[in-house]
Structure formats: structure tokens, C-alpha cells
Amino acid sequence: MRNNVSKLFVGLAAFLMIAALADTSYAQRRARGTVYSKQQVEQLLERIEERSDAFSNQLNKSLDRSRLDGSVAEDNITERVSELENATDELRREYDHNDTQRENKPEARNILNTATEVNRIMLRRNFNRQTENSWVRLRAELNALAAIYGLPAVGATSYRFVPVRTTIPARRITIIRSISQQQVEQLFERIEERTDAFSGQLNKSLDRSRLDGSRAEDNIAERVSELENATDELRREFDHNDTRGENRPEAEKILTTATAVDRLMKRRNFGGQPESIWATLRTELNVLAKLYGLPAVGSTNYR
User: Fold this and answer.
1) DSSP per position, 117-175
2) CA neighbours within 13 Å on the CB side: how many for 253?
3) Burial class of 187 by CB neighbour count within 10 A (0 to 12, 13 to 18, 19+)
4) Are the CB atoms for 139 and 119 separated by under 8 Å?
5) DSSP symbol at 295
6) 23 belongs to a structural domain
7) What is the separation of C-alpha 244 from the centre of its chain, rounded to a whole number of angstroms?
8) Are 194 and 281 in contact (CB under 8 A)?
């Protein structure tokens, strides 16, 4: 009798295991065959953009407090993250213009390819918990994107990363021309708005600090004023020149001045609001650097 009961339990367990495997296989086939609406994909792309920005800000804060601050390694890491943000923007533009997902599958693959390189960096380096959690959330959204396009998940060995060589002039022109004049003007507007917001918050912070009325306060205010003036100058030059290559010196001047401001932000403790606005502004300035094929803010190339 006991033998029969044992056989019955074994048979039941085997049946349940087969049923579970069959159900999992069916679920996977069903997931692959799911048709996503345009609205669902747009919502996913929005979440990816938001989480890319959040991750970029957290990563910059982590790097600023690490021994990598100001190093070539820091430049390489921020460049990879900037390339991921640019790849996401490119897919968003292509998705808006093309009728079918199949047409912009190469852009989706480009995002996942770049994300895989960022993932390798995250695995090799030890960042703080907020940065790592931010990356985990972003990677989950990117894997949802991979599922939609029928591509391997982030980290798959099928992805081979080819870095953008910003030292090659011909490649620089390609990067610059891939963005419309309207999009660059919108970037300039955001930089101007965030520079004004940063300047206002920084002045409030200085007025409440022991630096109020000191020579140090004057020096800081002067650097920020130079950044505002350099941004205005590039805006004027961009409006008058036919190609972005002609006003590259003005863009480099902005990034050189921004690097001086960045060093001040790292040396002084201005509190949460100015530092938060600066992190957001610096992200926009690094997008500008990417457009002109220049190193990111904080690079040792800027003197």
C-alpha cells in the first residue's frame, strides 16, 4: 500500500513538473508573439529616457566623489553613458518618423549594444548603491525594449561595442550632422534656462554662506558669469553660421569654462539645490560636447 502511495506521489510530481514546463514554454512563445501598440512603445521610450537621465546624474555624483574624478577613465565612462543617451534619442526620433518597428530595429540594437558596454563598466567598477539601483531599473526597461524588437537582452555576448572616435574629424562631422538645427537650438534653450537657474540658486547659497562678500565669492560668480556669456556667444554664432563646424571654438569655450565651474563645485559644499541643478546642467553640456565631438565637462583636456 505504501509503495502504491509513493508511486502515486512520484507520478503526480512528474505530471506537475511537465505541466509547469509546458506552461512556461507557452508563456515565452506568447511573449514573443505579443504585438505592442505605438502608445505602449512610446511610454517605454519615455521611461528609458527618464531613467537614463536619472542614472547619468547618479553616476556623475558617484564619479565626482571617487578616485576616478578628473581622470581619463572618468571621461571614458561618461562618454559611454552619453552615447547611450544619444542612441535613445535617435531611436525616439526614428520611431516617430517610421511606420513600423522593423524599420527602426537597427536603432534599437544600437541602444542595446551601447547599454551592454555600460553594463560591463558597471560590473567592473564599484559604484554607490544609488547608482547601481538606478542602473538596474534602467536595464530592466532596456530588456523590455529588447523583447519588443526580438533582440538579445543587455549583456548578451552577441553585442560588440565599437566606440565613437571623437579624435577623427570625419566622424565628428557625422555626429554633428545627425542632429537637426531645431534640436540643437532646443538644447541651447535648455542650457540657457538651466544656467540661469543654477546661477540664481548658487547666488542664494553664497549669500547664506561664510563666503558672502569675500573675494572667493567674486571668483565663483565670475566663473558662472563667464559660462553664461560663453553660452550666449555660441547661440549667436550658431544663428549666423551655416555649419556647426564653424562655431566649434565657441562650444569648446563653453566646455572649458564649465570645467572650471565643475572644479569649484567639487571643492566647495553648496548644498543640495545648487548641486542638483549643476548635475542637470552638466548633463546637457555633455550632450553639447557630444554634438561637437569634444570631451565631456571635467576632462583633463580643458585648461
Assistant:
1) HHHHHHHHS---HHHHHHHHHHHHHHHHHHHHTT-PPTT-TT-------TT-HHHHHHH
2) 15
3) middle
4) yes
5) P
6) no
7) 23
8) yes
- Shared domain for 116 and 184, answered yes or no, is no
CB 294 within 8 A of CB 251: yes
Quote the domain boundaries for residue 97: 38-148
In a domain, 26, yes or no: no
Distance CA 224, CA 231 (A): 11
Q: What DSSP line would sit under 116-133, residue for residue?
A: HHHHHHHHHS---HHHHH
CATH number of the domain residue 222 falls in = 1.20.120
pLDDT in tens, the chain (303 residues): 545 545 544 454 444 444 433 433 333 344 445 667 778 888 898 899 888 888 888 888 888 788 877 677 777 788 888 888 888 877 877 776 665 667 788 888 989 999 999 999 888 888 889 999 999 999 999 999 999 889 999 998 888 765 544 333 333 333 344 567 777 788 888 888 888 888 888 888 777 777 666 776 777 888 888 888 888 888 887 766 545 556 788 888 999 999 888 887 777 776 677 788 888 888 889 888 888 878 888 887 787
| Alpha-carbon span 282 to 272, nearest angstrom | 15
Alpha helices in 150-271 (DSSP H): 169-177, 181-207, 215-240, 248-267
User: Number of H helices and number of E strands within the chain?
Assistant: 10, 0
